[in-house]
Amino acid sequence: MNFNIKEYFTKGDTRSLSVKRNITASLFLKGINIIISLLVVPITINYINTTQYGIWMTLSSIIAWLSYFDLGFAHGFRNRFAEAVAKNEKQLANEYVSTTYASLSIIFISLLIIILIINNFIDWSHILNIDNSYKNELRVVFALLAGFFCVNIIASVFTTMLTADQKPALVSLIQTGGQFLAMVCIIICTKTTKGSLSTLVFLFSGIPCLLIVVISLISFHKGKYKTYAPSIKGVRFSLVPKILGLGGQFFVIMISMLFIFQFTNIILSRIEGPVAVTQYNIAYKYFNTLNMTAVIILTPFWSAFTDAYTKKDYAWMKSMQNKLEKLWLLCIPILILMTCFSSPFFKLWIGDTVNIPLSLSVCMGTYVLCQTAGNLYMYLINGTSKVRLQMIVYVIFAIIAIPLMSLSCQKFGLKGII
Question: I want to staple 259 with a disulfide (CB 3.0 to 4.6 A). Which of 117, 134, 309, 398 is the partner?
Answer without folding.
Answer: 398
